[in-house]
Write a structure and sequence with these properties.
Distance between the termini: 10 Å
Shape: globular
Number of helices: 3
Number of strands: 9
Strand order of the largest sheet: 4-3-2-5-6-7
């Protein structure tokens, strides 16, 4: 499986250190608030699992699934909710947890949809930020793990055609070697 990885961009140790740092900052910022962490499936599930264990204030979690990539390396441009939240979010301080902020279309769409449900606040946390690909200029993450170059990355929950999610690091994949 690793023969298609051109290089390791972020090691497991770098990821764990950054998650601990983000967890401490989120804990500080959400002290005394009604925190609901929303994982955008499937890519953020590994990051979310580690992040919520690093948060030291009471929090609840929920999940959404949004489709915009399919089996390609570029976003299709169409965003669809394929699994919605299981609860009303009115009055919650929402923290949307995403694996990667790329074009920004998905997070822009989600923020718009979720704002209409009247949460107390909405903030964005992304493990990876790829600003060179940003199309939705109204989207910026409040918490960013790493800013990365415009390369197709996999591992630590991120996939290419549902493969590589289980890698403990983030690597650059060459889809032409598939």
């Amino acid at each position: 499986m690793t023969e298609n990885i051109e290089k390791v961009l972020l090691s497991a140790q770098q990821l764990q250190a950054k998650v601990a740092e983000l967890g401490a900052k989120i804990s500080e910022d959400y002290r005394g608030k009604k925190l609901l962490m929303v994982s955008v499936l499937k890519g953020s599930v590994v990051f979310m699992a580690d992040l919520m264990r690093s948060v030291t204030v009471p929090c609840e979690i929920d999940f959404m699934s949004v489709k915009s990539y399919g089996d390609d390396t570029k976003s299709s441009g169409e965003v669809r909710i394929t699994k919605d939240l299981d609860r009303p979010i009115e009055g919650y301080d929402l923290l949307i947890v995403e694996d990667i902020l790329d074009s920004g279309r998905t997070l822009s769409y989600l923020r718009q949809v979720l704002s209409a449900r009247h949460p107390a606040s909405i903030r964005l946390c992304t493990l990876l930020d790829k600003p060179d690909r940003r199309e939705a200029m109204d989207v910026a993450a409040d918490y960013v793990g790493f800013t990365i170059p415009d390369a197709f990355v996999v591992g630590y929950g991120l996939d290419y055609a549902e493969k590589y999610r289980n890698l403990p690091y983030v690597g650059i994949v060459d889809p032409d070697k598939e």
